[in-house]
Amino acid sequence: MDIYLTRHGETDWNREMKLQGWADISLNEQGREQARRLAARLAGVRFDRAFCSDLDRAAETAEIVLGGRGPAVEPDPRLREMGFGPLEGEPYGDARTNPENPLHGMFVRPDLYKPPFGGEELSFVAARFDSFKKSTLEPLESDPSVRTVLIVAHGIIVREILTLAGGFQYEDFWKLPVGNCSIARLKLEGGKLTIAEMDEKVGHWLI
Predict the structure, then answer these.
(1) For this structure, is 8 an active site residue?
(2) If you placed Cys at 181, which of 34, 107, 156, 176 could pair as Cys (CB 3.0 to 4.6 Å)?
């Protein structure tokens, strides 16, 4: 089974480098245009099922990509972005270089990051996706009517899925090509996810 995994289009908070997490921020016009360009790239793909995070920016991206030509989009909260609690809405521009920034650990070793003020660890995000995979994706493998699936999610959860499916190291987490509306094609065979192909360029916006 082919799974096309993408990240939502740009929002104003992406542009302003503010942490989004579970905050329900909508696409801006650039994000809608990115989704339209992705729809054109995938115009030849017939999707049998489509899933997205239940946050608006992912749901709208999915609707634009499908353009009314595919199945109804099924929202699932397990596909949400990593939750950052009271840090959501805060700028993260210097988090990679400033050890005093509470997000610094997330940008150095995300697998070891412990949220200082509430929120999720990366392992929680992985557990959410594992639950979705086992209860929703794996049963579709035995359904002959489902060969191609679309999933629209968020920057960190997409990176985590690619890291697990591709066997990447967490030192390379932020180097993975996950810009707004980037695309990766995964294979699900016997319950195991692998990467068949993915975009090559690293996206400008990190979260």
Answers:
(1) yes
(2) 34
